[in-house]
């Protein structure tokens, strides 16, 4: 839940896309998506957040 909360906060406050967040923070986008998917969350490009 902490990862979900932090990533959504960063997306909301600092980044217009998941690509920009991952590039800036040197995070593997696929790994992040899979980790949150395993926890039951899915990324929405339209809303720029995980649900």
Write the topology of this structure.
Layout: H1 2-13, H2 18-25, H3 29-38, E1 43-44, E2 49-50
Antiparallel strand pairs: 1-2
Give an account of the 3D structure:
This protein has 51 residues and is mainly alpha-helical. It contains three helices and two strands, in the order H-H-H-E-E.
Shape: globular
Oligomer designation: single chain
Would you tell me the structural class of the helices and strands? mainly alpha
Radius of gyration: 10 Å
| SSE arrangement, N to C | HHHEE
Give the total of beta strands. Answer: 2
Mean pLDDT: 98
Spatially, the strands of the biggest sheet line up as 1-2
**Helicity, as a percent range:** 55-70%
Characteristics:
51 residues; mainly alpha; two-stranded antiparallel ribbon; 3 helices
Gist of the model:
The chain has 51 residues and is mainly alpha-helical. It is 59% helix and 8% strand.
